[in-house]
Design goal:
It is built from 2 helices and 21 strands. The protein is mainly beta. It has a domain of 289 residues: Porin. The longest helix has 16 residues.
Length: 425
């Protein structure tokens, strides 16, 4: 019903008011090659693969005056995926990443339709823009912004779009979620007590019904706060989030997660040095009536806990040292070193998705040192071609004792790399 209503509103805007609209348009074309080597930490078994991805976004915003606007963002994706197990597979799709009607009056606004939710450091809610098929939602959002206060209230479902990577059982990809089976109701507020400094507070209710593909019978409340600030070259954030609720079969949820990061920026080469510590208690599985691992409403962990996606914000500890510098105009060098470990050796080691195991937990495990990941990235904005950006990354994950214990003694390094050309016009 919501999708039909949104389409009708958009059709009405185009048919009745399009002559009065002021339109702005743009396009974003991204070509990416990426390779994955030894992600099973066992060089004797070939699970290497590569992908070539082509993604096109087109954006069109129509301003009809009197506070009424329409935003459309169709997307098209072509993926060529190759692995030893499945050979080469081709995958393509075209759909709407965003399509909404917005009305603003004074300090208040309302947005109806398909839209992205991006908040804070995007540890919980973000667009996952690095993916070929980014995250988006169908629903309604109310907005208030006046002075130092900003508040969004939303009721949405994840949009029913397909996954970015085909596999042997679903060579054309599969739906990430079915939107009727999940709902997200929440509020996210910000108070700025100084320039570029303030505090966020949020509440999210996440519900899966019995038809959901993942997490059947789940009803979880996630609430937290985030401090952020910038002052005389220093910047930092600190976030704490808690989770309570119920699962099917009378299982209760009791989990939490924490993050703190800080940095200092120098004028020399626009250099920033940073440090970050992320932590979430694990579940040792000694109490069958309580689930103690933090569960993500809709994670965006790729940017936080390593580009290779071996970790999410659950049953983990991560000390990150970071460097960003620009020795030449338009060129940036970004380096991150992660020292990663499990909080509970007997708990599950969860990947970036937060629901898939890198290694399942077991009572006999004692090792917690997961390893370290080193990521080096170069970003170059081509001055001669406005809108063109080139990106390259190389990452290596050096496994620790926890990998060897869980992987039959095998603990070979995993490697990851990509090359991106992105043109916005």
């Amino acid at each position: 019903m919501l999708k039909k209503t949104t389409l009708l509103l958009i059709v009405f805007c185009f048919s009745g008011l399009s002559y009065a609209a002021e339109w702005t348009t743009s396009a974003d074309l991204r070509e990416r090659y990426q390779s994955f080597s030894n992600f099973n930490f066992n060089s004797a078994v070939d699970n290497d693969r590569w992908e070539f991805d082509s993604r096109l976004y087109v954006k069109a915003k129509g301003d009809f005056g009197h506070g009424l606007s329409v935003f459309l963002q169709p997307q098209a994706v072509i993926i060529k995926n190759n692995s030893a197990a499945n050979g080469t597979q081709d995958f393509s799709q075209a759909d709407l990443l965003q399509a909404y009607v917005q009305y603003n009056i004074g300090d208040f606004g309302m947005r109806l339709g398909r839209q992205q939710l991006v908040y804070g450091d995007q540890r919980l809610l973000g667009h996952l823009g690095w993916k070929d098929v980014a995250r988006t939602f169908d629903g309604v959002k109310g907005m208030y912004a006046a002075g130092p206060v900003k508040l969004d209230v939303f009721a949405v479902h994840p949009a029913d779009i397909v996954s970015m990577t085909p596999n042997s059982t679903t060579p054309q990809g599969k739906s990430l979620v079915t939107w009727e089976d999940r709902r997200l109701i929440g509020a996210y507020g910000t108070y700025n007590f100084a320039a570029k400094s303030g505090v966020d507070a949020y509440f999210i209710n996440w519900h899966h019904n019995q038809q959901a593909a993942v997490g059947k019978g789940r009803n979880l409340n996630t609430f937290g706060t985030r401090l952020f600030g910038k002052w005389h070259g220093f910047d930092g954030t600190a976030e704490a989030v808690f989770q309570r609720g119920t699962w099917a079969n009378n299982i209760s949820q009791s989990a939490s997660a924490y993050a703190v990061k800080a940095g200092y920026s120098f004028a020399f080469w626009k250099t920033r040095l940073g440090v970050e510590y992320d932590f979430s208690p694990g579940d040792d599985k000694t109490d069958a009536t309580t689930h103690k691992t933090f569960v993500f409403p809709f994670h965006t962990n790729h940017m936080h806990y390593g580009e290779m996606d071996f970790f999410s914000w659950a049953n983990m500890k991560d000390l990150r040292l970071s460097l960003k510098t620009s020795p030449l105009k338009g060129l940036s060098l970004i380096g991150n070193v992660h020292f990663l470990s499990l909080d509970k050796a007997t708990g599950d080691w969860l990947n970036v998705v937060g629901t898939g195991n890198v290694f399942a937990g077991a009572p006999g495990y004692t090792e917690t040192k997961a390893g370290n990941e080193i990521d080096v990235k170069l970003v170059y904005k081509v001055a001669a071609i406005k809108g063109l950006k080139l990106v390259s990354l190389y990452g290596i994950f050096n496994p620790g004792a926890a990998v060897s214990e869980r992987n039959g003694g095998k603990a070979d390094a995993a490697k990851f790399g990509y090359l991106i050309a992105q043109y916005v016009f």
